[in-house]
Amino acid sequence: MNGTALHERPSASASWRIALPHTAAAVPVARALVRTALAELEHGSDCDTAELLTAELVANAVEHTHGDTPIELVVELLPSGCQVEVHDGDPQPPGNLTRPAGGEPDPWQEHGRGLLLIRALSSSCGHRPTGTGKAVWFRLPVVPPQRHPA
To answer: 136-149 pLDDT, tens per residue?
Structure first.
């Protein structure tokens, strides 16, 4: 696990919340929202990593939860970086998010790497119960501005 998987929620300086369809069409919409939100930070988090991890969370919510209840995406910009949450209607925690499974994923399988990516690339990740199911989240730190030689 990266960082702690506590149920605490840091105070956001700005946030976006959107309901997404419970279909694969939600993934590109979620990626676009994250990119737009992170463009608001002067020295933002890594947009590419945020998009990738958001796509994994949304795809997992679509694939591993049932029903047609919308999925909710919450993007919070924090002084220290960003936090992205995906809410779904299933109260079951995601498998192996905060601790690795027994072995490496099968290199020949298409599935099985999403939660590994989230654990490896985020500064922290976890899940928490909500009134209607659960929220699965990750945090990314602010990336310092790069110096360019003159």
So the answer is: 999 999 877 666 66
